[in-house]
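We emphasize that the prediction below concerns an isolated chain of 294 residues; any contacts that depend on oligomerization or on bound cofactors are therefore not represented. The input was used exactly as deposited, without trimming of termini.
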Amino acid sequence: MKKRLLFAALCLVLLLSCVGCSAKKPGVDLRVKLDALTVSDEDLGIKDQFSALSDITGGSIDDALVGRWVSADGRTSYTYAADGTQKIESEDYGNFDVKYTCMTCGDYKILCEEVPMTSTDAEGNATESTALSYTAYEIENDVLYMAMVEEHDPMYTTNQTALVSMFKADGSGSAARSMAKNPIDLSCLNGTWVTEKGSFTIENGVLTCDGESGKLSFNDKNQLVVEKDGSATVYSMNLSILKNYDDGSEKTMLGLYYTGADEDDLPNLLHLMDDWKTDYAWDTWYYTGSFELQ
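Result of the prediction step, given as a token string:
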């Protein structure tokens, strides 16, 4: 009798566990994250206030930031130390060290980085200097979400900030676990995205362009995958906001990059994108498109 009761209790526990597992965890809404982190230096009250980290009073190290953070594609990592030094390692741009501190401005957490700069005059003479960079950030569920603070400069009327997501690395340096438990909600891409060459619509995980549809998903590097007729195209992706300071208007943009690196890729949106050549990121032609949310 005791065995039967124990077995029944165990079955009930397993059943409740399965019910809990069947409840779908909501994904990350990238547009909400970007909106929450988009802010200008004027809004923060720090415009032209600091020229070096030493000018910042009340700066401190955020313990939640300390550690190694890795990009979804594994090509870039940021390692923040408790002593205010940061090591940036990038397969595309090389490795370098910067100093940093953190401060709170109203509802925003701001990462302040002192970036080394080298300028060369017409005669080839180099001058070393530093510049301060400000980034609004949020840490949630082992993900570091960042957006550059917009600089309101009278020399131009528009500025653009993009959402960057970095994932907490484990002891072996892998960020796979934190990526797996933070899926992107496909619905955050819903809408009609327009460029001068045409448009496409995303709705409920389906991308429609020129009357033809393809299924959408994200791969394990958070790249956007469009599958159609058994073939797939993989796009690198970012979301950005373009703001016009003259009239206060904002535009949400979707940036897509296609390298054609995978042999099975089918360039679904190639006719809507421009081709480029670069000497530092890829060794071949790549395609880019900047699409505005209608």
